[in-house]
Every structure is written in C-alpha cells, then in structure tokens.
Amino acid sequence: MRIDLHTHSTASDGTDTPAELVRNAAAAGLDVVALTDHDTVRGHAEAIAALPEGLTLVTGAELSCRIDGVSLHLLAYLFDPDEPELARERELVRDDRVPRARTMVGKLQALGVPIEWERVARIAGDGSVGRPHLATALVELGVVETVSDAFTPEWLANGGRAYAEKHELDPFDAIRLVRAAGGVTVFAHPLAVKRGEVVPESSIAKLAAAGLDGVEVDHMDHDEPTRARLRGLARELGLLTTGSSDYHGTRKTVGLGECTTDPEIYGEITRRATGAFPVPGAGGPRPV
User: Fold this and answer.
1) Vertex 164: Cα angle to 145 and 100 (nearest 5)
2) What is the per-residue pLDDT for 108?
C-alpha cells in the first residue's frame, strides 16, 4: 500500500490542478494521497470530484506557523474545514500573502532583479501566492537555474536578502485549533536545514507535549543521518513518523510517492481523526 501524505496543487503553489493531481497520483501507483495546500482547503472539492477508482484522498492543509522567530509548517489532516476559529486563522494567513509577495518583489527589484508583480501574479494564477511563485519568476528571468536555487540566503530563504515575513500562526495555537476541529497534526520537514533556520529539538518536545501527533521524517530535504535522528527523537517523544513527497508538480523535481508513509501509521492517523474521513474513489481503495 503506497501512501503519500504531503502534496500541493494550483490551489496554492503546485502546478497540477487538484483534478490533475489525483489522476497523476493514481497513475503513479499510489493508494492514498493527501492534498495539503498552504493554508487553504480550496482544492478539496475538485479533487474529490475527480478522484479515480482505487485512490483514497486524505483532506488536509499545510499551516504556516512561527515559534521564537523561526518559521515552521504543520501538516493538518482530516479536520473539519468549517470549524470557524481555524477557518478564520487560515484566512488571515492567506490575506497576508499578496502584501508579503509584493514586498519581496520590491526587495528583489532593489537587488537589481528585473522582476515585476504582474509576472508573479501570472505564475500564481488562482493559487495562494507564495515564494515558489517568485522562485519560478527568478528561473524564467535566468537569475537562478532551478526553483530550489532561489531558496538560499542570497534570495528567498528564511532570513534571505529578499525574504519578507508574513502572518503566521503560533504552532501551539495551531495544534489546539486543529485538535478542536477533529484533526491530526504532523510537523512538516522539521530539520530541513537547507531551507533556513530550523526549530530546535527542545521546541519539538514542547510541541509534542502540547498535542503534536507526528513528525515528517522521510522527506527529500532530510538526508539519511537526519532521518535517523528524527526517528530516534520521535521514539523518545511518542510521535508518529510519516513520509511524503511534498509534491509541487513541475515546480520541483520530486515525484509523487518518492517518499511514503507506513500503512500502520496512516491507520493511526485516521483512527485519531474525528473531523473528517478519508474519501475513497469510486470503487474504494485497491486491496492491500
């Protein structure tokens, strides 16, 4: 059983529409895929409508948070999307994305990059504008070779020359809100040092004590020593360990199902969730 619990669509910063994403997930041989766009659930209805036979969809979102000045992302699964307090916080984060992106465009222009807001807006389309859209613009302009090359201190990495902060949730509040909405939380790529400063393990322990359910271990931005370190930490703290692609379509080189989650862990996530339930495609999930 192949399970990928972290993907993005054009509802945020991926290049596949939600319908394309679920079709591509089925073509990649996945049995379960989670749609976890940044701070939005806007793509869920389209993904459910297009869900192929044999593929199960886990609804979710990747929530933007900050602790002690360090940004982090929480994957929230199977929560009630209509729970008002969590919905209001997601809206606050989304509303801040355009002013933040415009600020970063201004910083890039001050650094001599011939970038215009209209180009970034075109790339973002109907999605929630974010740094990957600016990174794609930098690739188009020949400033960097790949999207990943834009996420360095020279450009868009946390604290980088063109970085700008945005409204972000306190992760302890986020955990509380997701749990109140019947959902499950997993710390996304917690030790991805190539992205910038990471949260110390002492803070992960505090988040675990506050109700964090798991950590994403198998991820393209974690090398093998880092994965081993995270597994050991998860054992100490009683946290679930997941794996996923963090798929963004053509915006990144990683493919669907490049990293996956153990079926037993997936089963525990679904057992803990009460806000929503996995959605099977017509005919239900393929047999294990």
Assistant:
1) 100
2) 98
- Output the six-digit token pair for 89: 């916080």
**Rounded CA separation 152/13 (Å):** 18
Please give the mean pLDDT across all residues of the chain.
94
- Do 13 and 40 form a contact (C-beta atoms < 8 A)? no
Cα angle vertex 251, ends 221, 162, to 5°?
75
- For residue 195, what pLDDT band results from cuts at 50, 70 and 90? confident
Q: Are 113 and 167 in contact (CB under 8 A)?
A: no
Which pLDDT score, from 0 to 100, does residue 47 have?
A: 98
168 vs 116: CA distance, rounded Å:
25
- Specify which residues 187 forms β-bridges with: 74, 215
Residue 36 phi, psi (nearest 5): -130, 65
Which token pair is 265?
Answer: 């862990």
pLDDT at 138 over 50: yes
